[in-house]
Design goal:
30% of the residues lie in helices and 24% in strands. Helix 2 runs antiparallel to helix 3, helix 3 packs across helix 4 and helix 3 packs across helix 7. Bound molecules: Butyryl Coenzyme A (BCO). Butyryl Coenzyme A (BCO) binds next to helix 10, helix 12, strand 14 and strand 15.
Length: 565
């Protein structure tokens, strides 16, 4: 059933530990948010006594492998004491204080989880970023956020060193590596001697917990800020009904640590339900290693981008006997019905698609037990009331295409991002009448299922990444061959859509070899900004379509790419 809004019935008694049932009730708007909430104390630390009494089965909280024989398994008890040590590293030698912002640019290593939980314990605001970020990306993030600390691994050192002098607010560089580096504190060294005694900060439930950088059509990425409760409580129903997790389950969520999908699937949803988070640190994604992992480890639940499933169904999956796999999920970009069908035929398993955004989390999902309509993103999930609206904020009837929107009541839903930091205009622009607008277009059918149509703006969704055209165009224009460019989405059988750049060349490059120049421009973009954004297709054109006022008409190029008139 759908909630009609924030109708809080029961309120929380201070001092009484919250239960999973309480978190569910909060999401169903049957209970008010507690004033204080801290995910580390109120969720993670509640599991460790249950491990001792056997109330929670002997299932690790985190199970990490790297394919080279290294393995880490932590119970909730161990995660608790290790993250307390990490918390002492952050506050003592690093000198960080509650509310300080910390950029965490780490690959899939156990320390990523430790640092995040340590930030929760100390009231620090963590800002995850992919290790694909370049020096320019990191500079922007550190300056925009006024981060006090960066936690990074070896591969990020050269980029950070090249820009650190331009970041006056940055006080501490913490290196997670067996090697030491001049000017950096060594996390392993400090960790070794840190105390495991730490008293968790009593954070307010609306206090900031994390910031995610998210791309839009114009400008640099915006800082979507989430609170302790939006992330820490807001994914309770998602974990139970979409991911279908119990404390006996082992979930492998593939997403890179830089994206909110990692936080949802590999931290909040899973640990709320007491499930084990499985992590494989693959040097590079490859389908054979992926399939071997599913046959080797007792993974029960798999969550990956549609692009991964598109790659997998090209293999002969019947050859593989997955050890324990029973529930498969996907999200981040639209899933083609054919892939869902092929996956089912080859593995006997359904694919449960979900749809969400960094700003507001999971919006629609095919929940366990619900009939799946191939090609649909499922139904709206609590606490949201999802509607399709027109440009004036009016609700459209089933079958009519419009913008996917979430109905607002007098209070902002607790699981929403709090704001785009330092950007009240962009925050306000997400509201239209009584609705939060997602920027995605879709249709709802008469059974309440939602069908994705495309972005309402120029943002490109490729392989599950949200890519702003402006960021790619800005990178291209730095190259002397480029006079101007327009970057749009273009269809792709594996990645759903890819970045395509239409480029007007400067005179000296007009007679260049197009293949060679394409490679050069692609390489240039990969160096200038995170490589996942590079234009996989490049077309050289004499001019770009423009309005009378000189604005580039990306929509004309995009429509042409997609064969639309
Ligand atoms: O494909 P190419 O080889 O041509 O290019 C790849 C890399 O080789 C290249 N690259 C990476 N590091 C580089 C580099 N090139 C030069 N120097 C470096 N240091 O850049 C390209 C990166 O593309 P990729 O990341 O797509 O790589 P890949 O290996 O093809 O991975 C495929 C996927 C499917 C595993 C990957 O695309 C992926 O993980 N996609 C999912 C993204 C995701 O998790 N999205 C969720 C966002 S959160 C959300 O949606 C909110 C929901 C509530």
């Amino acid at each position: 059933t759908k909630s009609s809004g924030q109708r809080f019935h029961k309120s929380h008694q201070p001092g009484v530990p919250l239960t999973l049932a309480d978190f569910e009730a909060i999401n169903r708007c049957e209970r008010s948010l507690p004033k204080k909430f801290n995910f580390a104390r109120d969720v993670l630390d509640q599991w460790s006594p249950k491990e001792k009494t056997g109330e929670r089965p002997a299932n690790p909280a985190l199970w990490w492998v790297n394919g080279k024989g290294d393995e880490v398994k932590w119970s909730f008890g161990e995660l608790g004491s290790l993250s307390r040590k990490a918390a002492n590293v952050l506050t003592k030698p690093c000198g960080l204080e509650r509310g300080d912002r910390v950029a965490v640019i780490l690959p899939r290593i156990p320390e990523w989880w430790l640092i995040n939980v340590a930030c929760m314990r100390t009231g620090l605001v963590f800002m995850p970023g992919t290790t694909q970020l370049t020096a320019k990306d990191i500079l922007y993030r550190l300056r925009a956020s006024k981060a006090k600390c960066i936690v990074a691994s070896d591969e990020v050192i050269p980029a950070v060193e090249s820009i650190v002098s331009e970041c006056p607010d940055l006080k501490t560089k913490l290196l997670v590596s067996p090697h030491s580096q001049n000017g950096w504190l060594s996390f392993p060294e400090l960790f070794q001697t840190a105390s495991a005694e730490h008293s968790c900060v009593e954070t307010g439930s609306q206090e900031p917990m994390a910031i995610y950088f998210t791309s839009g059509t114009t400008g640099s990425p915006k800082m979507a800020q989430h609170s302790q409760s939006s992330l820490g409580i807001g994914y309770t129903l998602c974990g139970r009904y979409w991911l279908d997790l119990k404390s006996t389950d082992i979930i492998w969520n593939m997403s890179d640590t830089g994206w909110i999908k990692a936080a949802i699937g590999s931290m909040f949803s899973s640990w709320l339900q007491g499930a084990c988070v499985f992590v494989h640190r693959m040097a590079q994604f490859d389908t054979d290693t992926f399939l071997d992992t599913l046959t080797t480890y007792p993974i029960t639940t798999l969550c990956s981008a549609p692009t991964v499933y598109r790659m997998l169904v090209q293999k002969d999956l019947k050859r593989y006997k997955f050890k324990k796999l029973r529930h498969c999920l996907t999200g981040g970009e639209p899933l083609n019905p054919e892939v869902l069908e092929q996956w089912k035929v080859q593995t006997g398993l359904e694919l449960y698609e979900g749809y969400g955004q960094t700003e507001v989390g999971i919006i629609c999902a095919n929940q366990k037990g619900q009939e799946i309509k191939p090609g649909s993103m499922g139904k709206g999930v609590l606490p949201y009331d999802v509607q399709i609206i027109d440009e004036n904020g009016n609700i459209l009837p089933p079958g009519k295409e419009g913008e996917i929107a979430l109905r607002l009541t007098s209070t902002r839903p607790f699981c929403f991002f709090s704001e785009y930091v330092d950007n009240p205009e962009k925050t306000a622009a997400t509201i239209r009448g009584n609705f939060y607008v997602t920027g995605d277009r879709g249709v709802m059918d008469s059974d309440g299922y939602f069908w994705f149509v495309g972005r309402a703006d120029d943002v490109i969704i490729s392989s599950g990444y949200r890519i702003g055209p402006f960021e790619v165009e800005s990178a291209l224009i730095e190259h002397p061959a480029v006079v101007e460019s327009a970057v749009v989405s273009s269809p792709d059988p594996v990645r759903g859509e890819v970045v395509k750049a239409f480029v007007v060349l400067s005179a000296p490059f007009k007679s260049s070899n197009p293949e060679k120049l394409t490679l050069e421009l692609q390489d240039h973009v990969k160096k200038s900004t995170a490589p996942y954004k590079y234009p996989r297709k490049v077309e050289f054109v004499k001019e770009l379509p423009k309005t009378i006022t000189g604005k580039i008409k990306r929509n004309v190029l995009r429509d042409h790419e997609w064969g639309r008139t």
